Amino acid sequence: MTDSTLAIFIIWCFLFVYSILGSIDFGAGFWAMVFGQRADTNAADIANRYLSPSWKVTNVFLVLLVVALVGFFPLAMPLLGTLLVTPVCLVLILLTLRSTFMVYSHMSPRYVPLLRFVSGITGLLIPGLLITLLPVTLGGFVEMTDGHPSVLTGKLLMSRTEYAHLAFGIATELFLSALFLADFAREAEDEATYRVYRHIAVAIGPLTLLTGILAAVSMVPEAHWLVERMRERASWFMLSAAAFAIGYSALWWKAGGGRTGVPRAAVVCVIIQYGLASFGYGSAHLPYIIYPHLTVEQGITNAVMFRSLLVGYAAGTLVLVPVFIWFWRLFLKDKRYLKQE
Amino acid sequence: MDNVTLARSLFGSSMAFHIIFATLGVGLPLMIIAAEVLFHVKKDPDYAAMAKRWTRALAILLGVAIPSGTIVGVMLALLWPGFMEIVGQVISLPFQIEIWAFFLEALFMSIYVYAADRLTPWMRIVSVVFVSIGASASAVLITDAHAWMNTPRGFSIANGQVTDVDPWAAVWNPSFVTTSIHVVASAYMTGAFAVASVAAWKLLRKGRAEREYIYHRKGLFLALLIGGVMSLATAVNGHETAQMLHENEPEKLAAAEGLFQTQSHAPLAIGGFVDEEKQEVVGAIEIPWALSFLAGNRFDTVVRGLNDFPRENWPPLFVHTLFNLMVLIGTVLIVLSFGALLYRRLRKRDYPRWLLRVLTLTGPMSLIGIETGWIFSCSARQPWTIYHIQRTSEAATTAGNLGALFVLFIGLYTFLLFATSAVMLFYFKRHPVARELAGTKG
């Protein structure tokens, strides 16, 4: 494997982890808003119980992704930076409003409805907006004038694929978070809340598949190279669909004690589903970072730095794994935390 | 404004905003450790109450520090693509290690706050120590990148290409150790004085239960002690920093002191304004020979003046004022904290009201000192982004829309400053210390 392939694979791993964690995180914020005013369910409490200790950690994964991208592909920054500065800055403003309002809402109960509303809505939009950056990388939306790149914002905003991507991002976020919170509620032995989130997951699940297919078929003519290559890798997407089918059906499996659904199996299968699909998509996208202007080979750092970074990531991961395990036990396993009040 | 100025304004204001919260985020954990340890040594529940209340303040501050840090991190990559191209190839290790420190801080902060009741006292202290280590390590590692911009090492440039990269030589660049000690000590100082300000302010209010005054006096004592020691450490290290500048970045020292002629027995100019026409600092108090002594520990040390360097490489001359302000604040803080401690020790009486009034200003003063210090360090590096390697104009993005983004972000920061202060006041008003103290006793 070449340096650039290994590097882009690591970036893919970070991106994948962040897209799953971020979807759950932002989605949980949205559900906390939706159920915040309802006295008949604990759904908002369960969402907040997950969010309170975890949002900071999730946020670090976003920074990790950016730092890893700059570290491994510094020579890609001139093009990426110029193209993405406006959309990413807008996402940053939303992200800041979302995080600060979430913290404020824990501190000043009187304004909770308003604060939760802002953090819920901004959180809903962020993953949708982030995924709309994908079409920019596919060709057709970048113009080069005298070697100076710019995004054809008008064309992007008028294109169907942009909105298909947006819909796919939001559907994914809502589905993953509902599914995860269903599992979290089951772990907390809160069957009523489990049923609320299971119901949502059942309703939104097929939409993720539908919007995903829409996003693929609506791609502009310039991006047909990618569609072609995805077709060559059809088996990845078939397997992904199969994982979805198994995961989705797990919501009807019989669990002990007359309960319906095995949410843990559903969560695992759906993560596998997204893993397979995004790997298929990512490998079809290679070697381009931005088609046709930038490849991974053009962006990669020097060999010396690359080795140091690898050692650094390996060492850092080894140090942190025990802490992550402890964190998992304290907040996702410990019944004393899950079942308070 | 041209694109470079816009990029600098957008990034500079984001940094200036983030630094307030980041500095307190490094400083407060040390205060919390001190309170936690004192609680277990002295078995005095007041200290437990302190640790608890400071942790809540820290949680609010981190709620802003984390997203604003994310903004700064991402903006760095987006606004300075030319800079990141070299950074990524030479000095990406500290950024990468910083991520792990950031993880450590975020994980243990959640554990300390949300699992407090399920931890043994010993594990609580370990958790908050790791929060502090994570926060301080983040500061050190980011400062490493900043230090490298001032004294770049670990690579060479041939035909515009980066070659001969030695990542660890870049990490251990000559100004790394001095500069990070300066940043961390001044952050600890700021955290302590922020606490001192609040405690002094509370002590000024009349008609409270004696119990409350005792609580705040303990807090003020602890804050003045840690704040005094840290401000002294910052000053001692500041002297080393000046010598480091003399060695590695003579233009910066010359601009800081408004020195035009290269000379031995150079005077130290305090205050005043640098006048380029007259080639002197107008209205300054001059201490003969002092600059030479500061720069090299000898009066006959030759200090290089600005005229030794091409005009287009001069830093902006207003940095002299920033530098003075930073030094002045540091000095005042040392005098104030040790003065107040001595007063209590010798007179064995309560702090007089005038002194308490002055002490309420120590927190804001520290923050102004931090801001002027950073603005000095970054402005006096101009016109370079990477000293003698890359000009700021070569590093900036060519993307449009920066003006609109600048307005948006300024609006966001202004709003957040007000909102965060309001939330802070609102929260501690609703949870007065009196109730907490009653709880611990009863």
UniProtKB/TrEMBL annotation, chain A:
<keyword id="KW-1133">Transmembrane helix</keyword>
<feature type="transmembrane region" description="Helical">
    <location>
        <begin position="236"/>
        <end position="253"/>
    </location>
</feature>
<feature type="transmembrane region" description="Helical">
    <location>
        <begin position="6"/>
        <end position="36"/>
    </location>
</feature>
<comment type="similarity">
    <text>Belongs to the cytochrome ubiquinol oxidase subunit 2 family.</text>
</comment>
<keyword id="KW-0812">Transmembrane</keyword>
<feature type="transmembrane region" description="Helical">
    <location>
        <begin position="117"/>
        <end position="142"/>
    </location>
</feature>
<dbReference type="GO" id="GO:0005886">
    <property type="term" value="C:plasma membrane"/>
</dbReference>
<feature type="transmembrane region" description="Helical">
    <location>
        <begin position="310"/>
        <end position="332"/>
    </location>
</feature>
<feature type="transmembrane region" description="Helical">
    <location>
        <begin position="57"/>
        <end position="77"/>
    </location>
</feature>
<dbReference type="InterPro" id="IPR003317">
    <property type="entry name" value="Cyt-d_oxidase_su2"/>
</dbReference>
<dbReference type="Pfam" id="PF02322">
    <property type="entry name" value="Cyt_bd_oxida_II"/>
</dbReference>
<protein>
    <submittedName>
        <fullName>Membrane protein</fullName>
    </submittedName>
</protein>
<keyword id="KW-1003">Cell membrane</keyword>
<feature type="transmembrane region" description="Helical">
    <location>
        <begin position="162"/>
        <end position="184"/>
    </location>
</feature>
<feature type="transmembrane region" description="Helical">
    <location>
        <begin position="265"/>
        <end position="290"/>
    </location>
</feature>
<feature type="transmembrane region" description="Helical">
    <location>
        <begin position="83"/>
        <end position="105"/>
    </location>
</feature>
<feature type="transmembrane region" description="Helical">
    <location>
        <begin position="196"/>
        <end position="216"/>
    </location>
</feature>
<keyword id="KW-0472">Membrane</keyword>
From TrEMBL, chain B:
<keyword id="KW-0408">Iron</keyword>
<feature type="transmembrane region" description="Helical">
    <location>
        <begin position="317"/>
        <end position="342"/>
    </location>
</feature>
<dbReference type="InterPro" id="IPR002585">
    <property type="entry name" value="Cyt-d_ubiquinol_oxidase_su_1"/>
</dbReference>
<feature type="transmembrane region" description="Helical">
    <location>
        <begin position="60"/>
        <end position="83"/>
    </location>
</feature>
<comment type="similarity">
    <text>Belongs to the cytochrome ubiquinol oxidase subunit 1 family.</text>
</comment>
<dbReference type="GO" id="GO:0016682">
    <property type="term" value="F:oxidoreductase activity, acting on diphenols and related substances as donors, oxygen as acceptor"/>
</dbReference>
<dbReference type="Pfam" id="PF01654">
    <property type="entry name" value="Cyt_bd_oxida_I"/>
</dbReference>
<feature type="transmembrane region" description="Helical">
    <location>
        <begin position="402"/>
        <end position="428"/>
    </location>
</feature>
<dbReference type="GO" id="GO:0046872">
    <property type="term" value="F:metal ion binding"/>
</dbReference>
<keyword id="KW-0472">Membrane</keyword>
<protein>
    <submittedName>
        <fullName>Cytochrome D ubiquinol oxidase subunit I</fullName>
    </submittedName>
</protein>
<feature type="transmembrane region" description="Helical">
    <location>
        <begin position="15"/>
        <end position="39"/>
    </location>
</feature>
<dbReference type="GO" id="GO:0070069">
    <property type="term" value="C:cytochrome complex"/>
</dbReference>
<feature type="transmembrane region" description="Helical">
    <location>
        <begin position="354"/>
        <end position="376"/>
    </location>
</feature>
<feature type="transmembrane region" description="Helical">
    <location>
        <begin position="95"/>
        <end position="115"/>
    </location>
</feature>
<feature type="transmembrane region" description="Helical">
    <location>
        <begin position="181"/>
        <end position="200"/>
    </location>
</feature>
<dbReference type="GO" id="GO:0005886">
    <property type="term" value="C:plasma membrane"/>
</dbReference>
<dbReference type="GO" id="GO:0009055">
    <property type="term" value="F:electron transfer activity"/>
</dbReference>
<feature type="transmembrane region" description="Helical">
    <location>
        <begin position="220"/>
        <end position="238"/>
    </location>
</feature>
<keyword id="KW-0813">Transport</keyword>
<dbReference type="GO" id="GO:0020037">
    <property type="term" value="F:heme binding"/>
</dbReference>
<keyword id="KW-1133">Transmembrane helix</keyword>
